[in-house]
Amino acid sequence: MSYSTADRLRSVTLDDVRGAHKMLSGVARATAMEGSRHLSSHVGAPVLLKCENLQRTGSFKLRGAYVRIAGLLPEERAAGVVAASAGNHAQGVALASSLLGVRSTVFMPKGAPLPKISATREYGAEVRLHGQVVDESLAAAQEYARETGAVFIHPFDHPDVIAGQGTVGLEILEQCPEVRTVVVGVGGGGLAAGIAVAVKALRPDVRIVGVQAEGAAAYPPSLAAGRPVSLSHPVTMADGIKVGRPGDVPFALVGELVDEVCTVTEDELSAALLLCLERAKLVVEPAGASPVAALLSRPEAFEGPVVAVLSGGNVDPVLMERVLRHGMAAQGRYLAVRLRLTDRPGALASLLGALSVVDANVLDVGHVRTNPRLGLTEAEVELHLETKGPAHCAEVQQALRDAGYTVMG
């Protein structure tokens, strides 16, 4: 059982967040806030990045997990805790439990990234791999809780967890007292709800904007319906905000205190992650980059100073490579073209020579000679090129046409 009926009815107040802040002293870092000249220029107002990607365990999740576990009764601590997660919550629960001397078990999907599995074990949790998706791991964790009496630690649907996440809001107001807009990624809603509780209580004039991935946006229909609505198949690369149903406790707070929940596309998430890496020198996971994606896509919608919360930096290197390539392609910095040429010695060298004139870097060449659609003396070449942006892509394609090649895509 994730929480009692009394917990379900209990909301979260500024006093709860302040109490959590005291409890987290010496445990969670007061993470840095860095200005972004590039985003400030794009938005037309100061933009600052709240770097929870630099928090212990690589995300904000430690805050809520620690407050929740610290609040357990002695007999509950003795029974241990259990959680289910693909990454950030797993690591937060593991470290919080170790710091508090509580035994922890974490169920993770079999396909969870190896770095996240290793980190969770190193923080002290027993990791059990179960199922292919987090929902299957969640069911296994809840069954384990019923069988053993271990306390299930929900990633977002508990007042103590929300109070812990709300300490980010207190830090924002301390570090940027003149803030006008806070932008934060939304999955189940625990972080957005906690920040909204703290910020709205002290500065009701500050606008709070939540951001969801377009393919996993459960909050807009839920807010329209006035109750949590489940998505059947949420799809996004941003696994940190890939949640099919808002939590009951955070939903009520988000509905009351968050001014807007908007969505961003996968292309926008990719571009945002790339920008954080290139311009801010920060490694951020796709969910953590969602506020930056919103600023890039709707710069006119945010009154400054703006604080964008980079909620986490635990990105699998394999995913990072794919996302960076996708982000570069979305910015016109990759170009894939197919063309035909005469199958004779030197033909490929001539093609590459034409590309060198326009300073296009060839990343990959595919050469096909045996295909029924090709003539007897023809070959088809597919090129992957590194370019400098949309204008350069157009220049490269025109240069190929001017050299007599038929560009097919």
UniProtKB/TrEMBL annotation:
Pathway: Amino-acid degradation; L-threonine degradation via propanoate pathway; propanoate from L-threonine: step 1/4. Pfam families: PALP. It comes from the Bacteria. Residues 336-409 form the ACT domain. Its EC number is 4.3.1.19. In the native structure, TdcB is in a dimeric form, whereas in the TdcB-AMP complex, it exists in a tetrameric form (dimer of dimers). This is L-threonine dehydratase catabolic TdcB. It comes from Streptomyces griseorubens.
